[in-house]
Design a protein that fits this description.
Radius of gyration: 22 Å
CATH topology of the domain at 47-131: Sufe protein. Chain: A
Strand order of the largest sheet: 1-2-3
Distance between the termini: 82 Å
CATH architecture of the domain at 47-131: Alpha-Beta Complex
Strand content: 15-25%
Number of strands: 3
Helix content: 40-55%
CATH class of the domain at 47-131: Alpha Beta
Largest sheet: 3 strands, antiparallel
Oligomer: single chain
Length: about 130
């Protein structure tokens, strides 16, 4: 009976340590993601100043990175290709490019459920558009 109590106590301590480690890891990841989000660059873009052409941009949000190709014709966003998107579960955010093309601007509303990836994509597109400034 004493041995069963000791085993139970050891199992309890191990479970508490695992839980504490998990909570600490989650807090660290959340903090890192918030800092990376704050460091994202969003260029001030006037599409009337963007020349026709194909431009490349990238953004690094820590856990999410993106490389994009943006085509501009007649001061309008004609196409956006996502060349690389390391995103975890944020692949749904890639649909944001359709809204950017339709509205001719990068600063559209984020895709629900994929906000972090949406913001990283918007940052990459804004940098690409800035490359085309006249």
């Amino acid at each position: 009976m004493k041995n069963m109590k000791k085993v139970g106590l050891v199992i309890g301590i191990v479970l508490i340590l695992l839980l504490a480690t998990g909570i600490g890891l989650f807090a660290w990841m959340t903090n890192s993601a918030e800092k990376a989000m704050e460091a994202l660059v969003f260029e001030d873009i006037d599409m009337n100043r963007v020349a026709d052409g194909v431009y490349y941009g990238e953004a690094d949000g820590g856990f999410v990175q993106v490389k994009v190709e943006v085509e501009v014709a007649d001061h309008r966003i004609a196409g956006i290709k996502i060349l690389e998107h390391k995103n975890g579960k944020g692949s749904a955010a890639e649909g944001i490019t359709e809204f950017m093309i339709a509205e001719n601007r990068y600063d559209v509303e984020a895709v629900s459920g994929a906000t972090y990836s949406s913001e990283v994509i918007k940052s990459g597109v804004s940098k690409a558009l800035k490359e085309g400034y006249l």
